[in-house]
Amino acid sequence: MLAVKGRAMVNLDKGWGIREDMYRVLRATGTVDHGLFKGSPTVQEAADFMATDPEILYMHIIKDENADVVGTFPGRQPVAYEVVFDQLTDPQVQPALLDRIQQDSRVWINTMWQDLAATYTDEASRRDPQLGWQAVVEEHDASMIQTDEIEGLHHWRNGGDMSRWEAQPGDRTVRVQAEDHAPGGEGVGYHDLDPNTCGGEGGVDVCDVEGAIAVSSVQSGEWIKYSVDLPRSGEYEVSARLASDGAPAGRIALEWADGTTGRHDIGNTTHLTRAFDLQPLETRHFEAGRHEFVVKVDDDVAPRFNLDLFQFDLR
Description:
- By secondary structure, the chain is α/β, with parallel strands linked by helices.
- It folds into two domains: 10-163, Alpha-Beta Barrel (TIM Barrel), CATH 3.20.20.190; 178-314, Jelly Rolls (Sandwich).
- It has helices at 19-29, 43-51, 95-104, 122-127, 133-138, 150-157; strands at residues 10-12, 35-39, 57-62, 80-83, 106-110, 144-146, 173-177, 190-191, 206-209, 212-215, 223-230, 234-244, 251-256, 261-265, 277-286, 289-297, 305-314.
- The strands form four sheets. It has a six-stranded parallel beta sheet.
- A hairpin with a 2-residue loop joins strand 9 (206-209) and strand 10 (212-215).
- The longest helix is centred in the N-terminal third of the chain and has 11 residues, at 19-29.
- This is DUF4996 domain-containing protein.
């Protein structure tokens, strides 16, 4: 707390059971107003705790079963309510209740993964803010958003184009979505070994992964063919945006039309579905124009990853 004093607020999540211990640390460090306690105890229990110190900041979590507690706190009100919903028909996300919350408190919505705010996720926001952050602000009155994409949210709030988030200016970055494989079907555009896990009829497993549209259920021995159109000649860093929860999480080979092949271990991004990240694969020279490549999943390391896109950055 001394390290963040005067610099940040701390979300004291999952700590209601040790709130007194946390409070003593905050009091000793002069940072009571830097910590946001949160939980879903009874109204009286939360009110009693808030009454012990006027500096305590408390947020009440509401779901389907306790949406009716809004407006029933005696005395001082929670500074915010975390509104958790997996359906747009849930009582806690209806306009009248959100309006009631805003009379005394803020509306906090968590977009880190699905079912915390229906399908409004960080990953969906990267594709289109109307599928995530913009929707929870404009349609559900969020005044506080919990996110793992802090820089991305800042970029969007400042009017940035999310389709160009984490891209270089101009035409220096080109992306190929993993689902946009070459045409031709099985044995031509791809080779897929397992039944489609996402409800489709055969073909590459393309799934909604917490809002990201990604190639999933990857199997050893599978391959996918792609093409990329590069507007400028030069040295490019080739990366893959993916999610994995182990190391190594698999090994892929990139086979290029000139006959060269690079093999790359997939690293750990900390979570198979909720932590996509760019991983550098290789740097190579390309002439301007169209280039084809095949991504093969090696047999020697069991694959456990979801693949979102490939990114080509001109150095």
